[in-house]
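Async update (no meeting this week)

Hi team, since we skipped the sync, here's where things stand on the single-chain job. The sequence we agreed to prioritize is pasted below, unchanged from the tracker. I ran it this morning and attached the output directly underneath so nobody has to dig for it. Comments welcome in thread, and please keep replies under the output.
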Amino acid sequence: MGDFGLGRIISSKTKMDSFPIDKIIASLEGRLSGGEQKELELWLAESAENQNLYYELRKVARLSDQVKVDFQPDEYKALESVNRKLRFRRIATWSQRIAASFVFLFILTRVILHVLPDVNQLEVNSIGQQVIYLSDSSKVTLAANSQLKYHKQFTGNERDVVLQGKAYFEITPNNRLPFVIRTQNTKIKVLGTKFLVDANNPQKEIVVVDEGHVAFTSLKSDKSKTLELTANEIGTWNATSDSLSEQLNNDPNANAGFSKRMIFKEAPLKTVIHDFERYYQVKIELADKSLETRKYSGSFSNLEAEKAIQILGNSLNLNIVKNENTYIVQP
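Output:
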């Protein structure tokens, strides 16, 4: 039996550099060496998709044996073979082989297209926090132990992604192409905004909007209402009642760990210190308790802890002293 035309079909359809086509063909033909067998087994162990593809191809190969296909899908060789068969007046037999070969190739192509993932679709599974830039320049900050599925290039009437876990989105505005996020239970539709989606809990999903406007909808029921959320609002989906609710966000820096910025407007210094400690994971103490009510307005973006704390002190005419791992704020 030949190589079934696998190399030609898979390379043109999948373009997968890691796809071990030579070893799969050798395995199906029973001529795989010991070392190659071990490499093939390692590839099979990588994912269920790899195993499914291999076993589907093996089924097709067995079908090929049943119809005694030995046709090589090379146009020039095929023509030479047909001409040779014509000279010996064996047209019927050879035509049957050609027909069987094309049936085989058709089935094989359908198998590959069904089993292999869309080559335009990417999947990121984060171990720690990870930043992803999409083809439209939108930025997604994926939380640890989360998954994002998206396309290399967006097609159709919307920019769609699928989220498992938690992520912060900074979406590039495009009035003609809405951005849609689908989780297991809900859908979030936006035009251009900054917001957090927390789908870690199967009983409750949360959207926290920092800027712009989003539409938050349940996927569990066609009758579920759509919640319209704007800046400083939180939307919550509850699994028990399949209901959506909204409330004001009293913590404007709740998403600072993802957005990398903090904003304060006439905030008490006690609140500022709390947000600094949470964001920078440092210890800050006020030497005088009367400083707690001192008001501060300002913003910080992508600054290291010591630099930000020094700016805070200078803005309020306060002294900052570092004692081992603690920053002490003095009048």
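Quick observations from my side:
The CA atoms of residues 74 and 204 lie 57 Å apart.
DSSP finds nine helices and 19 strands in the chain.
Reply here if anything looks off.
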